[in-house]
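[SOLVED] Need 3D model of a two-part complex

Original post:
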Amino acid sequence: MTDDKDVLRDVWFGRIPTCFTLYQDEITEREAEPYYLLLPRVSYLTLVTDKVKKHFEKVMRQEDISEIWFEYEGTPLKWHYPIGLLFDLLASSSALPWNITVHFKSFPEKDLLHCPSKDVIEAHFMSCVKEADALKHKSQVINEMQKKDHKQLWMGLQNDRFDQFWAINRKLMEYPAEENGFRYIPFRIYQTTTERPFIRQLFRPVATDDQLHTLGDLLKEVCPSAVAPEDGEKKNQVRIHGIEPVLETPLQWLREHLSHPDNFLHIRIIPQPAD
Amino acid sequence: MPSSELWAVDLFGRVFTLSTAGQQWELCRDAQLEFKRVSAAAPCCWGIACDNQVYVRVGASDVPIRCREEAYENQRWNPMGGFCEALLPSDRWPWSDVSGLQHRPLDGVALPSPHWEWESDWYVDENFGGEPTEKGGWTYAIDFPHTYTRDKKWNSCVRRRRWTRYRRYKSRDTWAKIPSEDDPQQLPDPFSDLSVGGWEITDEPVGRLSVWAVSLQGKVWYREDVSHSNPEGSSWSLVDTPGEAVQISCGPHDLLWVSLWEGQALVREGINRNNPKGSSWSVVEPPTSENGILHVSAGVGVVWAITKDRKVWFRRGVNSHNPCGTSWIEMVGEMMMVNVGLNDQVWGIGWTDRALYFRHGVTQSELSGKTWKAIVAGRECDGSRAGSLSSLLSAGCFFGDEVRGGGESRVPSDSEAERPGPDPERDVEVAGPASTPAELPWTNIDLKEPKKGPRHAAADFPEGTNLSSLALLPLGLEEPDSADCHALWAWVSGGGCAVEAHTTLKWFTAHSGLRASMQMLSLPITPAQTAAWRKQIFQQLTERTQRELENFRHYEQAVEQSVWVKTGALQWWCDWKPHKWVDVRVALEQFTGHDGVRDSILFIYYMIHEEKKYIHVFLNEVTALVPVLNEAKHSFAVYTPERTRQRWPVRLAAATEQDMSDWLALLNLCCCESRRVHGRPSPQAIWSVTCKGDIFVSEPSPDLEAPERWLPCDQMFWRQMGGHLRVVEANSRGVVWGIGYDHTAWVYTGGYGGGCFQGLASSTSNIYTQSDVKCVYIYENQRWNPVTGYTSRGLPTDRYMWSDATGLQECTKASTKPPSLQWAWVSDWFVDFSVPGGTDQEGWQYASDFPALYHGHKTMKDFVRRRRWTRKCKLVTSGPWLEVAPIALGDVSIIPETPGAHGSGPGIALWAVSDKGDVLCRLGVCELNPAGSSWLHVGTDQPFASVSIGGCYQVWAVARDGSAFYRGSVSPSKPAGDCWYLIPSPPKQRLKQVSVGRTAVFALDENGNLWYRQGVTPSYPQGTSWEHVSNNVRRVSVGPLDQVWVIANKVQGSHSLSRGTVCRRTGVQPLEPKGQGWDYGIGGGWDHLSVRASATRAPRSSSQETAGKRRGEQGLPSGPSKVAGAPQETPNPVCC
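Solution:
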């Protein structure tokens, strides 16, 4: 019997094989070899690409190096989105490995946030965790934690240490036994077809009649266009962590098992690829 | 916690029950009867029906209520015809009771009431004091009455034998009418109220209840001899009262309150275990003189009352020593009646709306509770419109008839209700209109009200009108507005309803019937685990991993694995001088090897002579982490094979319980990780329990039972499972059962973790709340002196006057604490009468001096006495266990199976002994439903203690008197077998446990001797004799490979002595089933072990051969015996 706990492991250890190539217009001293790496799906681009940066910096002149940024098929990649999310949103239908272009010049100021150091990622990550806990527990759990617990969460993510991370994170996943779930489900729904970066709303895991809400309920409520009508053809794929859970899946379960380390459930809705 | 039921009667006289786990009222179906009053206890419910008869409804159970009838056949020898029935004129009857004074022919023994049936015909009891008598059960003596012996001697002039026959109570789950007295003089007038309680006064006989009733004439009656084995009681006896009673309430313990016509309350004084009827009455005045008491209800430490102005009152300061209490406190709400149930929880029926209310927030510290909460649980008859209409109509047909008949008989009762005072001329009074509303609601007025509905005041209801027409009429009238019909209630009884502070009830929100039933369905063991959506997620994740990783494993990882260190401050028990707890820093270093295997080292840094030193433990060498909780310290012990041999683990303590469980959980995780042990234990796992009730499980390695070069059992790795048990038994098909200290039966759900193992160390599903209750004992010791008799002043050399059992430790009531901080007291100290050796009426046991053998009565030579005080404490934890309600167990055994041997059979044989000593056989146990479906009761002539079923369905059991039994003809098609064969015990020993492996039978006696049953063959499965194997054994478990494991009493290690150690018998061979020596494993502090699932055999070529030999020698039914010495007989199992 497979246990639910194995899902957490599978989610955490999800990897995307990636091929980094230097942008053709970058000036190099010698030819830049592509760099191959397994990127953790749940981490952030700028957190795990030290090796990439070092690799390409070796072939470049010092004065040509400014802040590194990444792009896929013309779209600059937002480092503050989890890697798996970026992949699912932009490249899920393309062949592996994922080809990412590395830039050191002409930072797209209007598309991307600067990421001068890992402290920025940490700040971003922790603010997400706190926001999620505000939705789940009115911030009670995160506020009761000590500074070292916060640090352990971050170090767990940074060092890719599942146990270290989950030893703390499980407390964020708990809820009182008399309730059937969290206050609100922290989620974000991303659509490639709209301008809006993502949808987030207040949504309870349990309906007024004590019935558990499902993924389908959520989508019907906040993003009706994503759900195919009963008889209609399926137009969109609903993806979480690269898989397509059926719409009957209880939201609370998804929330507890398929959340990202930032404690949000990142759901992407992408058009069904025409076969 | 098992669900229990609240009983209530609605205005139509229909009886409903509401489960604490449910949210819907269940109609207690009985077409014939409507009830006025019910009073419930846990096992049964008593009621007064509208025919003014008393009924008792005993709940259905898999264990029958059975009573033994016996008669003695007496004979005298004469020279002419030998032993014959011709007795001397001065002799006893030829057929008599045990004393010989009563004539008792077999055909003269009648069933006490129509609710009993005979189980079988009369038969001769051949068992004489644990030994078979042979010779037709005759025992011999010189003369009547005398000491009887088994053997006939030259001077044996008389003989007798005992005939026994069992009768069984058959009217279960149905209302059984209590037979009226034959003698009209004794016949009480019709009863108007009744109350059941008093089950906490004493448990002798088992299930004793106090049943009190009030008759229409205002007299109080007590039902004699009501107990588990006699649910109807024997007769009503009158208890004189100073006034005329109207209503009575008996609490679970010794409170009995009666309300009088005059408005006062009577309180019974002097109720105790020797005199459950009490001795005298005291009067309690009502809160205000103008409004008398209408209704009272008593609990353990509370009394609630209703006065004529409908106000609710709470009596303060009520307890056993002061049953009258001190003063009244007015509570909010207007109620028609209130009822105090278990745990002093309170229910009430509203005066105006006739709705049922539960007093919310009643706790031991706040007995008056907080608020009234309306119970809005639906009723099955409200569920569907059409259904309710038809059922109401059909009920109405009966109802019309019934009420007419009842109406006539009720005339006197009505008149009584309206009677202004204690008028003796009630019989001539005719029904008249009610004068005031306050005087109405006593008797069956309740039945009339629904016709008017709650909108009408009861006062203007015309009395004495044609009830039957009214009764039928409202059915049509009510129909339109019954969509919002909330039930109108007449009576409620919570005497069988266990609501505790932490229980969450679902009674307060309305639910549709469908949802309620779905919730019930989702309770059993297979949860949503099988749901399609979950399967799909698992599958997609696997596919994802394959898609995204399979071809790219050679890629570099973005993040390099690093060492993670957790540090903290703990205390460590210093192994050498000064032998005390010292503060240490600890660090756990985790690192990942090249092969991906994680390993960890625990460093303990300490200071000695101002020098920094450390010791370290490789976590892949740790064999067990055992929590050691006591009053003062949150500590745990770390065992390695070396430490196990030393009997001296590393002991660490944390400052808080939370800190300790964090460390324990983390260390456990590391140990499991380094040994790659994960998830649920395999079906072959070995389970064990420590004396603290902690559960440990070990995966048997293939070479554990290898005939040569076996793995020493000190190297076995034990990991903890959540939960608290006293006994755990497993089977190699994954069925695991446990028994708690409170005898609750539990079944393993397939989860892991729970308890202090949260998060990753625990499975998400299959973890449930588990509670256990155990008793703490202390002794009160006294010495006799010529002046003052027994006093608590001992000699200077005496033990403490309040001590533990040994007398070495002082244990006073105030200073004795629960075993650890996890336990909380749930009772007060009480005198324990169930002490071995018996007690006198105050619980004292006497002896000539301390320490000595104690006996239950005072003699001239006794100078000291002691009595045992008991207090119960409770622990609430969680673990992968679900309760198997409702029968409490003392022992359980599951058939050991070797893989493939019996795998074809769908059912798994499971036998158990209930806490009362009944032998039970569980039906419907299989891998998918390890809890099984129901118990099959296996009749015995005496209470049993232990049972074990072997691999070939050979069932052995040990009775409480220490004799052993073999059950004949047990097979898959005949799960309960046919009869018991008495097996004589080893000489002068009382057996206490038996364990049967594949073929080997081992038994344990009360002095710790282990015995092997010699000569067991397929044709003679009972064997021939007991052979001594070893002493120093506490518990034995024989596995499916006939391997023998025990819990040894004492084992000396190189550093220390341990008590309660897991040991394996070495050298057990097919030709040498008794083995040669012992191999010592984890301990001390272990209490129980089950190797009965461990069927993993070493993959050796010779194992086949070994198995073949074994089969040949021990003689499985499948193969004929071939080994020399074994009798060559027919191979089918034998039954005589």
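Edit: DSSP finds eight helices and 72 strands in chain B.
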